Structure formats: structure tokens, C-alpha cells
Amino acid sequence: MKRILLFLILVQITNVLAGEKANSALDLSPAKWIWYPSGRTLQNTFVLFRKEIYLDKEVTQAKGWILADSRYQLYVNGKRIQWGPAPSDPRWQEADPLDLTPYLQKGKNVIACQVCFFGTGDGTHPMGKPGFIFNLDVDGTPILSDSSWKCYLPKSWQPGKYKRWFLRALQEEFDARKFPYGWDDTSFQPNKEWIQANIVSNNGADPAVCNWSSEYIWEIFGNREISEIRPRSIPLMHETNTPVWKLTESMWINWKRPAEDYFDMLVPDAFEVDSQPVATPRPDNTYLISPQANKAAALTFEFKEQGVGWPYFTIDAPEGTIIELLVHEAHKPGGPAIINSHFNAWTRFICKEGINRFETFDFESFRWLQLHIRNFNRPVKISSVGMRRRIYPWKNEPHIILSDDTLQHIMNATVNTLNNCAQETLVDGMARERQQYSGDGSHQMHTVFQAFGETELPRRFINTFSQGSSIDGYFMDSWPAWDRLARTVERQMQLTGWGPILDHSIGFCFDSYHYYMYTADKEGLREVYPRLIKFFNYMVTLTDPDEHLIPSENLGMCSVYIDHEAYKQTRHKQLALNLYAAAMCRYALSPLCEAFGDEENASRIKEYGIKTEEACVNKFWDKEKKIFINNLPWIEEEKEIRYCDRSLATAILYNQCPGNNKEQSLKMLVECPEELGFSYPCNAVWRLWALSKEGRIDVVLDDLRTRWARMSSVWENNVLQEFWTARPDESSQWSHCAVGPLMMLYQGIAGITPLTPGSKKCRIYPQPGDLTHTQFNIQTNQGTINFESKGLKGKREIILQLPPDTEFELWLDKREKVKYPPCGETLEGLIKYRINGGQTIRLKLKHT
Fold first, then answer.
1. Which of 715, 39, 691 has its CA nearest to residue 409?
2. How many CA atoms lie within 13 A of 79 on its CB side?
3. What is the C-alpha separation between 543 and 339, in angstroms, rounded?
């Protein structure tokens, strides 16, 4: 049975189109892959690697590469240097660059690396094999990983520790009494337990999955013909220390049974609470706690906003004191005493005598941090509680000033949301899956481009997500991650309704097209493009030959998602799915084919899109009501009419309503009656896009001020939550990837989108609505557009600073009088004006 399941997984991740090696392949030879000498490696095993080097002069340059499976923490002479690598497909791992020039000194130096092999699935790690490789050039002298390195198996982390939950590999438990403190510094003297590292591969061009080390859980073997190491394609993350804001509450916990039972098994009724405060802040921001019988102390701290990083603290305590560090996105003071309701988000630390500084090995997403302290027989002192926050090193910071305080707050929260979810990959929620999705998750790409001017992160997203192309042709909708590998096994055995999401594969074709339009980078799509064609061919096989529509049910391996909340039945999703597919074929994939000179595929894909759109009209368009109805074929059976915002928005955006009869669709999106299925926040942007296209920015702004502003997370955590309602002390995601407000700032209020690849030509369709003042910048591949609006409709001034070597189409109400030459008219009756870049223009407008 095990080998059958293994075969199913390997079938899904093998990609026959990946045989062509990339030009950027990295060969770290003569460095060798090394590991602790062993016949097997248990999950969540830590290994320490140590190399002493002697330098006879000051260092002028020390640069190189480092890579480990699964994660590493690098130290030089006792100083923490960096953490990595970024999540990747095991066949195409990315090595992190090194610059140790500032850290090496004349004389003795120690390079030390702490490596954790997950050995089990994680939201950031599909699978792999244990190994560590290091290649550094110090002024012409190579420092290479080989058998001269010493390694140590620290019992401070017990190998084989169970995983935290389905998509988190590491449930960390660290015992400071068993840790070789000072091992990373020059004064340390290794004992006989430090042994010679074992070489597990001589080939420094292959990723870890190809090495010889034993991977006993899956028995996987990498294919050297397609696999390679590549250089890290994004910068290293920026880290800053962020102290807690305040101690919010504290209390005593009286355990009725062993605390380990509760944390291992979530045993109910395991403790009683004594709400008497445990500690108060001292003048030096420390907290002194005196023991009270055998009770445990719980101290709950909060930060000013939610962030992603490594929680840490310092404690002066007796040997054997145990601390469970728990983190949560949202907690209500006076609520649950132990905040262990968020996917087992705890780490256990056991103290040595005296001062202990603890920091989790893996990062977390949280605003609340709790220390649950037990087993101490003298006063303990807590200090320096905080987070080592990690944020992507953005090239530009958004500059946003709005006259409306509510909208300003929402935009700030959206920016912070991006700081949390757009890091090394574009994930949904860092506190739960930490997985990279297309579809609703990839809307982030628009704001990463327009808010930050970032191109490397979207390029990495496009390439790494595409690597999840299956043999059949569909994409793993969350990749590189464990989720869909596990679901494919479960799907084969009829144990889940979730399979790789088909509409996310459709969305990824849009993502690739948007990437090209923002950057004009065809090279970045070189490996991606054939996988898109492969997906299209797969999609054709799913199409019903009689209806020329893709079913939304019974697709075999794949499933259809579209949205969480907008549909009562899965068959109601068929309309949205096929309008989406038709639009993708006509307006994304076919144009990409043309960009690659692939006219044959461009033609047949466009034709497929046209036929699919016609089929949607035939089955779902009500000629009397002049609107698409989700359940038109089944109304008599279901005794009700169902619409959805997604279908109506798609039809408006891509002109899919027959005869351009879109009035009823627009009316439905404006009024949102009960029979309209309404999407959850990530997908609600489709409606906002359609409304802004039709000039209804008034409805958009009202929606932001009411529906979006009612999110608890905006005001409490300075982020956007997953669903319209989120509750504290539950598994709700308070920092998710909904970025609709920021997209509406750039693509609605400013109305800026690229019209030609690389943003050489852009549209500007300004709609400031009832905002008396707006000032913000929009990043493009050609430079920054500065947008400012003053006054209200009737007496409005809009100031645009436009980058050079660009061209713009300004879309305005036909009643406006401007000095620029007209160049056409839109379907909505707006006049287009041609404007050259490299200038500042001032528009005096009455009807905008």
C-alpha cells in the first residue's frame, strides 16, 4: 500500500516538460552534500555543522552559496547571519547567496550551521532528502562543505518529534540543558560526540533530493536529468527586532492532569484558572514571577499590529523550568486562558539554570504572544519579549494619503497584509497554510507590482507555481507545498472532495499574462509557457463535447472552487467557471501565444474561448431578464433563482453579455439582493473591478467604508482577514491575502492598468469619487506615476506626474474639455485621449 501511495504522489509531481535545464543553473562543486552519518533520518531532526578556519590576514571579500534541506540557520563567530532557504520545488532548489565579508576576522573563525530536516509535509515544503551544502570563496581560498566539517546530533531537539498539524512540519521542543552552548564560537572545544560529516553526494550541481542520504518515509529518488540547483531569485528577507507593545493579562493555571497531555492531545477539562494577576511590568520592562505552589503562570502579551517573524524572550529561571510559547492572531482579553486554539501554535522550551534566551526556529504569524511557565521553584524574571520580524525588502514603499480616515486605515491595513503574506512566496495566510496559490491568492501580484514596483517576487511566483504541473496537465493549486500531494492520495481513495483546483489553473494563465503585461519579460515565462499550453490541452479533455462546457462536478482528480461563500450548490459554479475559462482563452492565453509567435495555438485557443462563451450564453443567459443566471437550467427543480457576483463581474469585465446588454448585471452588482451569491473577501475584488469599469466608484467606496471597514482585523491587527466575519481565539485567519482595497486605489480611483507589455502604454481612468483629496504613487515598469486629486466633482483638479518614454490613454467623460488629442471611444462611452509621458499634467475636470 505504501508503494502504491508513493507512486501516486510521484506521478503527480513528475513534469515531463521540465527536462530542459535552466540557463541559471548553479553548480556548487567541488563542495559536497554532507549529513550526519546515519542509516535513516527521523522527521524534525536537527543537526549542527561546524567548520573552523584560520585566516592570516583581514578579509576583503568572502562570498558564496548555502543550501540545506529543509531549513538552516547560519552563524559566524557566534553571530546569527541568516535563515533559509526559500520554499521551492524539491527538483529545483534555490541556494542562498552568502556575503560573510563583515563577519570573518583575521585568525580563527567558526562557521556554524544549524539544520532542521522536516522529513514530513509542510505548507512550505513538499518533500525532500536531508543534506547541507556550502561553498564560500574567501579572497580566492575556497571553504567547502566536505568530510572535514564536524557535525553533532543535539538531543536538545528530540529527533522524530511529531508534526504540528497537517501543514506545519515542526512542533518544536527545545531543551536548553542538552544544548552545546557556544558551539558556534571560536572558544568552543568539540568533544568526541562531534564527528566527521558524511558525504552524501559529490555532485554540487544536484539538489538535495538527488543525494544518497536515506529518506525512509517516502523512499524518493531525484531525477538528475531534470533536477538542478538554482541561485536564489529574490533578495534575502529583511529582519528587524520588534518589542511587544504591552502585557495585557496574566493569571495562574492549576493543572488537573499533566500539562503534556493537554498540549499533546488537547485533552478537555485539563486545568483550572485562577485569574489573580501573576506579574506587573517593572520599571526596566521586566516581569518578576514568584512561584505559587505547583501552579503555572500564563502571561499574555500583544503587539501593536500583526506581523510575521520569530517570537523570542529571555528568562532567568531555575533548571528544568518549562515554558510553552504560544502565538495567536487574535485574542480577546478575558477569553480562553491558554490561547491554544490556532492549529497547535506552540513551542516548548526547557530551561538550563540561570539566564536563557529563547527564539523559535521557524517563523510565525501573530499579534498575541503567551508565555505559559511551569515547574519553577524560585522567582523567575522575564525580559526582552518580542518578534524578529521578517519583511520582504521592497524596492519602493507606498506613499498613500487619503482625505477619508476610514479608507486611509483600510489601505494601511492592506499594505501590512502584503508585508505578511508576500514574502518569499505569495501565500494565503502565514498563520495557517503558508502556501502559494493562484486564483484568489494571486491577486496579490497586482499590488506587488503597483504598490512596490517589485518584479523579482512575481517572477519567482510565476516560475515556482508552474513547477507544480502534473503529468495530466493541471497545476497543483498550492505549490510548492505538501497540501495537494496529500490530497491527490486522498482523492484517489475517495477520502476528500478537494483535489487540485481547476479554476486556479485557469487563474494561473491570467497570472502569467498579467506578469507579461507588467514586465514584458518573456524570458521569465520561458519554462512556464509550455506548461500553460499543456494545461489548456488538459482542459479541453474535460470539456463536454455536446455542450462545449466544462462540468463543475465529477472531474476526476480536479475539483472546482471559484469561491467559499457565493454558491449553494457546486453545479451553480459551472457558469462562473466557464466564463472564466472563456475570458482566459481569449484575453490571456491566446495573446501570450501571439507574444511567443505561436499563431497556431493562439488561433485554436481563441476559438475555444469564443465557443465556450457562446455555450454559456446558450445555457445560462436569460433572454427576457437579459442577465446570466447560475441555475437557469434547474430553476423549476430548485424553486429559486441564483446569481453570483463572480459570473456577473466576469461578464461585464470581458464584454460577455450578448449585445452588450449589461444593465441588469450592473444593477445586480450595485444592489446585491438576497439571490446574489456574494464572494468572500479575496474574490470580492471581481465585483469591485466590474463596478469601477462601469464608472460606479461611488459603490466601490461605499463598499470599502462599510463592508471592508467592518472587518475586526482592520482596526485591531492592521490587516485584512480571510472572511467577512472573524472571531478571536478561534482558527479564523486575521491576516490573509485579500488585497482588494489597494487594487481599487490603483485600478479604480486612479484607473491605471497596462495596455501594452511592460507598461509602455497605460490606461488612466481617474475616479476619485467623493474624496476631496488623494495623493499616492503607482509603480510601473517604466517608472513611478504620481497621482493627486483635489476638490470634488464639479470642480476637480487632477495632477499626474508621468514617467518618460511612455504613452498613456486618458479615459474621461465625453463632456470634459481637455487639450489633448482624442484617440477613440470606449464601449462605456468614454473618450480616450493620447498623452505622452515625461511630463506633469494638470486636468481641470467637472464631470469626473
1. 715
2. 9
3. 48
Place of cell 494561473: 508
Q: What is the structure's pLDDT at 10?
A: 40
Residue ranges of alpha helices (H) inside 54-177 are none
Give the distance from CA 254 to its chain's centroid: 39
User: Burial letters for 198-223: b for 16+ Cβ neighbours within 10 Å, e otherwise?
Assistant: bbbbebbbbbbbbbebebebbebebe
Nearest to 553 by CA among 533, 567, 532, 535: 567
Q: Rounded CA gap, 785 and 777, in Å?
A: 6
Check pLDDT > 70 for residue 26. Answer: yes
| Residues whose CB falls within 8 Å of the CB of residue 649, separated by 6 or more in sequence, listed in order | 669, 686, 687, 689, 690
- pLDDT for 15 equals 40
Mean pLDDT check: name the lowest of 403-412, 483-492, 527-536, 780-789: 483-492
* Total residue length of the chain: 848
**Quick one: DSSP state of residue 654?**
T
pLDDT for position 12: 42
% of the chain at pLDDT higher than 90: 95
795, three cell numbers:
470642480
Cis bond leading into 37, ω under 30°? no
Tell me whether strands 246-255 and 296-317 are parallel, antiparallel or unpaired. antiparallel
- Largest alpha-carbon pair distance within the chain? 87
DSSP 8-state secondary structure symbol assigned to residue 588: I
Give the CA angle between residues 119, 121, 123 to the nearest 5°. Answer: 130
Structure confidence by residue, pLDDT tens digits, 101-157: 999 999 999 999 999 999 999 999 999 999 999 999 999 999 999 999 999 999 999
Q: Is the confidence at residue 370, as pLDDT, over 90?
A: yes
Within a 13 Å sphere around the CA of 636, how many CA atoms are in the beta-carbon half? 1
Specify whether the CB–CB gap between 549 and 615 falls below 8 A.
yes
738 by DSSP, 3-state: which? coil
Q: At what angle are helices 645-653 and 574-584 packed, to 10 degrees?
A: 20
Strands 761-764, 807-812: pairing kind: parallel
Residue 171 has pLDDT above 80, yes or no: yes
**What single DSSP character describes residue 597?**
T
Residue listed under C-alpha cell 572545544:
189
Q: How far is CA 801 from CA 173, 298, 408, 734, 833, in A?
A: 55, 55, 22, 36, 16
**Beta 621-622 vs 627-628: how paired, if at all?**
antiparallel
Q: Are 751 and 772 in contact (CB under 8 A)?
A: no
Amino acid at 645: D
For cell 490603483, the residue is 746
Strands (E), 197-341: 198-201, 230-231, 238-243, 246-255, 271-274, 287-289, 296-317, 322-328
Around 331, how many Cα atoms within 13 Å sit in the side-chain half-sphere?
Answer: 28
**Using N-to-C axis directions, what is the helix angle for 599-620 and 574-584, rounded to 10°?**
150
Strand, helix or coil at 612?
Answer: helix
Query: What is the Cα–Cα distance from 689 to 699, expressed in whole angstroms?
Result: 11
SS3 at position 185:
coil
- pTM for the complete prediction? 0.96
Query: Per the structure block, which three cell numbers stand in for 248?
Result: 495585557
Sorted by sequence, the CB contacts under 8 Å of residue 301 that are 6+ apart come out as 244, 245, 246, 247, 248, 368, 369, 370, 371, 385
What's the DSSP call for residue 3? H
Residue 245, classed as helix, strand or coil, is coil
User: Rounded to 5 degrees, what angle do the CA atoms 131, 430, 776 make?
Assistant: 120
For residues 9, 11, 13, 18, the Cα torsion angle rounded to the nearest 10 degrees is 160
